[in-house]
Give the backbone structure.
Amino acid sequence: MTSKSDDSCNPKSRVEWVVELIKRTPIPIPQVRRMAVIESCRAGDLNEIFWDSTCESPYLSEDLKQQIAKALMANNWDALPELVGVPFSWMHPLQGAPFQDFRTMTMGIFCKSRKIRQLPLSRRREIGKALMSLKSREDIVEFLFESLEHAQILDPESCSRIANDVLEKRYYRLLLPDRFDCDEIPRLGATKDHHHQLEDEPYCAICLGSFPIDGRWCTLLCTHSFCLACIQDLAKRHGGDQFPCPSCLSIESQQMLKKDAV
């Protein structure tokens, strides 16, 4: 009988099956870590990455880690959905956009990074603008390496670790304190409600901030959110009555920005 996770032993199908599993598990994992593990699985050796990220995760109990390890050692991938709380009825995969997911992960890491927050607003906006202009995963990786060469807030050891993690495609390690130091720790002891509240926090892809500059967010019709000041400035520079969302390029109206400004 064909494995539900397997699709004729197609490695690409197995990867996307695991990606959807990670996306859908109700285990309270910060979204930035979830995305980092997903992109690591897509780019690296699936068995090795999934094993490593499971063992290193501070969000899984030791008992669950042992059960997952036992399933992986037996190559029993079909046991994983039940272990992580995902019913088999979900088996119609979500439509993904791998490049968009990778860029979202990168922006999420930058926005949650305590070290990136130390940069001046003007520099953060430069980084955000550069990320939004890139067209491929390879462009983002190249941009990251170029940024490391001129890093103002990272010591040489941190830069070396980040470079190695990217080369090994272990993006979840970029969240560690000696890398980008992403703001995950408050989530470790969070209640389910508190976790949900934290995960709903937006971030601005223009200035890479998780706190609005002027205290106000603006959510566009496409559902992407930005600092009101950032998106107003971008729309003004674009000119005309309409402007593209910097995240998905959907056409938005300046009239909505005027409502949010009231």
Notes: Residues 98-112 form the longest helix (15 residues). The longest strand covers residues 217-219. DSSP finds twelve helices and four strands in the chain.
